Amino acid sequence: MQSDGRQDESLMIIFNKTRNMTLSLLEGVTDAQARWLPKGEVNHILWHAGHIFVLVERCMFAAVVGSNEMPTSIQEGWWPLFGWGSRPWEFTAEDWPSIVTVREALQAQTVQLQDELSSFDDAFLSSPITWSDPRWTGRPKRVVIVHGFFDELLHSGQIMQLKRLYDTEQI
Fold this sequence. Notes:
Elements lengths: L8 H18 L4 H5 L9 H20 L13 H5 L16 H20 L3 H5 L14 H30 L1
């Protein structure tokens, strides 16, 4: 994917800082804590963590492949649980993976994305997305990648807040 040999390190810096924060927030979270839902909320820690995985995977796939197909790297059944437009309250406890499973998926994704990001140069990142989603078509590939990382930051913030609320409720 490199054309001029210059790598764009900015995305790697943003990704590493973001993902390290996400993984750190999930460290030691129990399944009970991950599935806890305070009054007025519709998404628990487990949903936010899984959503981060599927969203970043989908954004990277859109940038690299430009296809509307679902990436095979998203585990079967995870899109209905964690994808945009999902309705987590419609699923039973048995439908959800453990928080450990999701955290391990995020760790494996981290290594894969670091490899991918290190291969992207400015020419690749500036080239237009061919994904048919009208929000993205023709925009530079880096835009959908940055969107994925920005969304991860937003959901990590939600995880942080839910952990604080959980700790407060347990006192």
